[in-house]
Amino acid sequence: MKDGASSSESDLRSGHRKRLRERFLADPGAVPDYEVLELALGCVYVRRDNKLLAKRLLAQFGGFDGLLSATSEELADVEGCGPAVDSFLCLLREIIARASESNVQRKQTVTLPDLVEMGRQRLKHCADEEVWAALLDKQNRLLMFKRIRHGSPDHVALEPLEVVELMIRNHASSLVLMHNHPGGTYMPSQEDRALTGRIALALRHLGLYLHDHVIITSEAAFSMTHDCRLA
Asked: Is 24 exposed, middle or buried (0-12, 13-18, 19+ CB in 10 A)?
């Protein structure tokens, strides 16, 4: 009896998932968030009914953006959510970030909004502070987007010489620096402002240029150029 019941439940799940997938493919925008997440979780827990877990996750984190920002510890507190979900979300974040970078890389000339959006996709979900550099050539084409430093949840150290060496090594003419504030405040600290000034001065002496230093949070981005900090 147990085998028969198990087989019947498996068939029901398979049939439900097939119907859900067909509805999604017919009109993705008409499928509610929890069912979209339920489909995605089917890649993690193949033999499980994931509807309840999908609803729990969205309720706990307030939607997809909050879910993508969730830490391993926060996910572990949700009933039925194991390490496989954490790994899956990490993979999704990386795919989204790389897609954004590829889009900017293809452009003949990039703008600051292009770079800021690329930086937000890379940094807005990070639990620790990181410094990234978007290196540009003389035609303002993106040469690379590279992490320079990884820090702690509330601090990351950087020296102007590291930026200078990175630009020279990669034949860059200018750059946009970006780093995140996981705590949520987008305003630069006094240390951020002082460091930005030292980097801009060091580059100027070599005929190189710092376009901007952008502070990124999960909700916003702060441009030091627009705030006249690089005048």
From this structure: middle
Mean predicted confidence (pLDDT) in 98-118: 94
Question: Which residues, including other chains, have CB under 8 Å from residue 172's CB and lie 6 or more apart?
Answer: 135, 136, 137, 143, 166, 208
Residues 60 and 117 reside in one and the same domain: no
Tokens at 15, concatenated: 């049939």
Least confident of 2-6, 18-22, 65-69, 208-212: 2-6
For residue 41, count CB atoms less than 10 angstroms from its CB and return exposed for 0-12, middle for 13-18, buried for 19 or more.
Answer: buried
Distance, CA of 13 to chain centre = 33
What spatial distance separates the first Cα and last Cα of the chain, rounded to whole Å? 77
Number of domains in the chain: 2
Structural domain includes residue 177: yes
Residues 6+ apart with CB under 8 A from 179: 123, 129, 130, 131, 132, 156, 192, 213, 214, 215, 216
What residues make up the domain containing 15?
2-94
Measured in degrees and rounded to the nearest 5, phi and psi for residue 227 equal -90, 10
Does 230 have pLDDT greater than 60? no
User: Residue 101 falls within a domain, yes or no?
Assistant: no
Alpha carbon distance 30, 62 (integer Å)? 19
Question: Which residue, of 46, 66, 94, is where some domain finishes?
Answer: 94
Q: Please state, in angstroms and rounded to a whole number, the distance separating the CA atoms of residues 98 and 177.
A: 18
Tell me if 67 sits within 8 A of 86, measured CB to CB: no
Q: Does the predicted TM-score (pTM) go above 0.85?
A: no
